[in-house]
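Notebook entry, structure prediction.
Reason for the run: the old model in the group folder had no record of what sequence produced it. Starting over properly, with the input documented here first.
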Amino acid sequence: MPETPSRTPVRILHLEDSRVDHALVKFALQRSQMPCEILLVDTLEDFQRELATRAHDIVLADYHLPGFTGLDAWDILRGSGSDIPFVILSGAIGEAAAVDAMHRGVSDYLLKDNMSRLAHVIQRALEVSQTRQAKARADAELAQSRQRLAELAEHLQTSIEQERADIAREIHDDIGGALAAVKLDLAWVARRAQDDETRRHLDTALEMLQHALGASQRIMMNLRPPILDQGLVAAVQWLAGSFEKRTGVRVLVRRSAEFIEVPRDVQLVAYRCAQEALTNIAKHAHATAVDMELSDREGVLTLEVNDNGQGMSADALRKTKSFGLLGLKERAEKVAGWLDVSSTPKGTSVILSVPLDGGADGGGAGHNREAENDDQSDFV
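New structure, fully documented this time:
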């Protein structure tokens, strides 16, 4: 017959001032056939020294001890940073004291006249502790994973914005310049063409070329509009005006000031939020009017986009593949802000809020005081 592999002994630190009770504990564990190594201490100094110098799996502590209680030992254990289970083993502990001990985080308690259950209580406390430690490790790993994903998302977003800026610059410098040069040459040829057929083809070519120029400018502006350099208010107004011309949907823009000064990263987040909101309206809302409000009152930048369309279902708002909204929420979090999206059958509301440095008395507040009682608004 093969030998049964021996289990690893449980290392027990026993805080007890009675040698008789210590012997009873050892006897009860021997009868339960629990392999263990048990060490006796009877003062807080010895208890603290053992915690610092040796590894233990569990603490058994009497409740009433000379000059202190088991809860004093529990406070020392918790203060040491150790997360090993702590079981109170007492001859007389009142119900109130037992409840208080459990509320303070003690693993369990057992009366000394019920010593036959000691091995079971120890085993259960160890299992609960192992489960709690495993959960803590899993939570820590999950938090690290989320942090890495957030950092990756931020890196990707930064890379995307940089690539957009680079592509927009290439479109402007290379494609736009080449198309403009070709247009001038065609116009020169058209002015000197003799027959009507040639002029007709040249006029058609010029129209197509003008369309290509317009398309390249539109693409360039969508990628990285130069108007952002003129400030957030001007950029949002340009975005609203372009949307209205393209879709025919009326857009009303309200702002708390002609110029709202915000950090560059916050400006880009707000602009992309407005852009994504208008894109969703054009694709899904079937709206006839859009209201946009931009404000920096009370030290918080707020961008609100409301439409009177058909709204979004709860399932659509919870869709895991709504990457546009998810991306905006990630962006908002990166600038310490938040994004709220709500919808009813009468329309959808998208609200971005970002605290600005300096609070209500900071940079943006001065603009608000100028327009405090007279919100400026434009039909764009």
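Summary: Residues 176 and 214 are 9 Å apart (CA to CA).
The old model has been moved to the deprecated folder.
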